[in-house]
Amino acid sequence: MRIVSGFVLRQIAGETIAIPSGPAARELSGLLALNGSGKLLFDLLQSEQSEDALVQAMLDTYEIDADTARADVAEFLGILRENGVLLEADPFLG
């Protein structure tokens, strides 16, 4: 899975904001405010990633347990899915 192309990250008033442009703007009418872990995951999702890889990145970066990391990743991916900005991998290609 990965983020659809067309997002620009900007620092605005100390917050990281993902701003859709081009085709991405048609999928999401608004902005995504990202906290530290959200930015980490968003950055990683610029290329194809597995959920397990995202969980491992959280474990490597933050002092949290595996259950918390997995729950945080699942919540973030759910938000991206709800907003139509996550491209799922084709199960027939993997």
Could you describe the 3D structure shown?
The strands form two sheets. A three-stranded antiparallel β-sheet has the order 2-3-4. With 94 residues, the chain is of the alpha+beta class. Helix 3 packs across helix 4 (66-82). The longest helix has 17 residues, at 66-82. It is built from four helices and five strands; from the N terminus they run E-E-E-H-E-H-H-H-E.
Secondary structure: elements and pairs:
Blueprint: E1 2-3, E2 7-12, E3 15-20, H1 23-27, E4 32-34, H2 36-44, H3 51-61, H4 66-82, E5 86-87
Concise summary:
The chain is an alpha+beta fold and 94 residues long. Helix content is 45%, strand content 20%.
Cα-based radius of gyration, to the nearest Å = 13 Å
Whole-number mean pLDDT: 90
Largest sheet: 3 strands, antiparallel
Query: Which percent range fits the helix content?
Result: 40-55%
Distance between the termini: 11 Å
The count of DSSP E runs of length 2 or more, i.e. the number of strands, is 5
Please report which band the strand proportion falls in: under 5%, 5-15%, 15-25%, 25-35%, 35-45% or over 45%: 15-25%
- Structural category: alpha+beta
Query: What is the tally of helical segments?
Result: 4
The arrangement of helices and strands along the chain is: EEEHEHHHE
Q: Outline, from the CA principal axes?
A: globular
Q: Ranges with pLDDT <50 over ≥5 residues?
A: none
Q: Reading side by side through the largest sheet, how are the strands ordered? A: 2-3-4
Key attributes of the depicted protein:
single chain; 94 residues; alpha+beta; 3-stranded antiparallel β-sheet; two-stranded antiparallel ribbon; 4 helices; 45% helix; 20% strand; globular
